[in-house]
Design a protein that fits this description.
Shape: globular
Number of domains: 2
Bound molecules: alpha-L-rhamnopyranose
CATH architecture of the largest domain: Alpha/alpha barrel
Number of strands: 14
Largest sheet: 9 strands, antiparallel
CATH topology of the largest domain: Glycosyltransferase
Distance between the termini: 57 Å
């Protein structure tokens, strides 16, 4: 199927859906896809070369137990017989996303047998030094790991590795050699790096402390790498557009590249590809033609799409787009509200979808969902107000009030000062954070809840910078400026101290091998949702820059 027939097949499937589930966006989808296509920013390409030959060193103090030390210059390889070298690792100096090419050169005589080379690309040192196989059946797909074997039947030409790579280091190993006396060199390497981000449009105050500046810069690099033709979550894995990642990337983009076309494209893609009843799929994949990841819904993500739409309107003043997409926002609220019980509590037992709040195993999300739902109601009402469409959502303020009161009554324990979630009254940072962000607790109560939870043994901590983002946001909404800054310096600064040049998808300061996927090399080491210090540092200069 070519690209066009696939799009038509997708639209036909939507349109053929039984009348009972009438498509609320009938007649709109094709146009929305076209708007998304028209807003696609151009990729900026840059050619980069390796900066050093490096050698892996096992070091228990290094992040995940491995580090690289420089041992030579890439130019030294030009005349080196690769058969004697057998393996070499190159450092490109920083993280890049794009396409890798190399050139071979005959040194003596000509090929007797094909040459086979294995390339392993890695974002962090441990990824190239941890065996991938045997591959556990419960893991995500083996082919996310970036190892590629190439057989050359000719030398003295350029070869480009077909798949797009996200990496800083590449290890090249000799797997099959061209025969005795047939010597060759791998004498040139080129990487074509790509991003749609463009130039940073903002600057930090001259007096901004060095540590904050460093955290900021790593955040900017993280965002740059994830800004491809959509806001990707991770350019290594999953290489797709997720609502939750987009929401945070768009916040950081506002204070850095200010490339709002990309935000527009992503908002429209989600809308055009929504389920037949208008509910948004959580991830969208661009190739071969934009399509949703069928079957994957995340209610909190669908609700955050509304917030991203309001932010987009604030950033651009693009009322036409916000007005066009407003019906989508109403559908997400209606869907969310269908899981709210008569008490005004979001009932997770109704299992509406994957209720993703953070990757930390065992996290009870009931209290967090209450917060996300209220927050989305507030922001969607604000969106309606800006568009002069409050009448269409006139019931929202009463719902916000009811859910806020219910949150206080059923989820907040006045005595301990903590938000308790689920049948086991779980204490987690996410619960305290989300009820703070939603304004269920007063600012004083919030500060107490966050401080108490941080000192509570067994409090469930976020396992990702995604969850940690909301914790810092909650601190900033409850007058905890110093603690917020210290948290950013410790958490994101901790990654910088451990050598991060882009921020990681998952990070537990107490466990470098932490992975939501049961295998740390599968973690993405350049992950969109981790870039938000850029947003914090610019939005609150008095807290972070002075
Ligand atoms: C993983 C990725 C992605 C996230 C989803 C929920 O696949 O970490 O960024 O949005 O989970």
């Amino acid at each position: 199927m070519n690209a066009k027939t696939l799009t038509i097949a997708f639209l036909a499937a939507i349109l053929a859906f039984p009348a009972a589930a009438q498509d609320p966006y009938a007649g709109k989808r094709e146009g929305w896809l076209q708007t998304a296509e028209a807003a696609k920013p151009a990729l900026h390409l840059t050619t980069v070369k390796p900066v050093a030959i490096v050698q892996a060193v096992r070091d228990e103090h290094a992040f995940q137990g491995w580090k690289y030390e420089p041992v030579g210059k890439p130019e030294d390889l030009k005349e080196r017989n690769f058969k004697e070298l057998e393996t070499v690792t190159l450092d490109f100096g920083k993280h890049f996303v794009g396409y890798f090419s190399f050139h071979t050169k005959t040194l003596s005589r000509c090929l007797d047998a094909p040459v086979r080379l294995k390339f392993t690309f890695g974002e962090v040192p441990a990824e190239l030094n941890t065996p991938f196989d045997p591959w556990g059946k419960d893991r995500l797909g083996r082919a996310w790991m970036q190892d590629e074997t190439i057989t050359l039947t000719r030398l003295d030409e350029w070869v480009r590795i077909p798949r797009r790579i996200a990496f800083r280091y590449v290890k090249i190993e000799m797997m099959g050699w061209p025969g005795a006396g047939y010597d060759f060199a791998v004498d040139d390497f080129t990487f074509t790096a790509q991003s749609t981000a463009g130039e940073v449009q903002t600057s930090l105050e001259p007096g901004c402390p060095e540590r904050i500046r460093k955290i900021h810069d790593v955040g900017v690099e993280t965002l740059r790498e994830c800004m491809q033709t959509v806001y990707e979550d991770g350019p290594k894995r999953d290489q797709r557009l997720w609502i939750g990642d987009m929401y945070l990337e768009a916040l950081a983009n506002r204070y850095s590249f200010r490339n709002f076309d990309l935000t527009k494209r992503c908002l429209y893609l989600f809308a055009a590809l929504a389920r037949e009843d208008g509910v948004l799929f959580a991830p969208v994949i661009e190739d071969p033609v934009p399509h949703p990841q069928y079957g994957t819904y995340i209610t909190p993500y669908a609700l955050l799409w509304n917030v991203a739409l309001l932010d987009y309107l604030e950033d651009t003043g693009d009322t036409a787009a916000a007005d066009d997409l407003f019906p989508v926002a109403k559908v997400q609220i209606a869907e969310g509200l269908s899981f709210v019980d008569e008490r005004g509590i979001f009932d997770v037992a109704k299992k509406p979808s994957w209720l993703f709040i953070d990757h930390r195993a065992g996290l009870d999300v009931s209290a967090s969902m209450q917060g996300v739902m209220i927050f989305a109601l507030q922001k969607t009402y604000e969106l309606a107000r800006r568009l002069g469409r409050e009448k269409e959502v006139a019931q929202y303020p009463a719902l916000i009030k009811k859910m806020t009161q219910a949150g206080r009554k059923y989820l907040y324990d006045k005595k301990s000062g903590l938000v308790l979630s689920g049948p086991d009254a779980q204490v987690s940072m996410m619960s305290q954070s989300w009820l703070t962000i939603a304004g269920v607790l007063t600012s004083k109560e919030s500060a107490r809840a966050i401080r108490t939870a941080l000192q509570t043994e067994g409090c469930v901590m976020p396992g990702t910078p995604y969850g940690t983002h909301y914790l810092v946001e909650a601190m900033l909404c409850s007058g905890m400026a110093d603690e917020a800054r210290a948290y950013v310096e410790d958490y994101w600064g901790g990654m910088v101290d451990k050598g991060a040049d882009t921020f990681w998808e998952a990070y537990d300061p107490t466990d470098d091998l932490y992975s939501p996927y049961g295998f740390h090399p599968l973690n993405s080491a350049c992950h969109a949702w981790s870039c938000t210090p850029v947003y914090f540092i610019h939005k609150y200069p008095e807290v972070f820059q002075r």
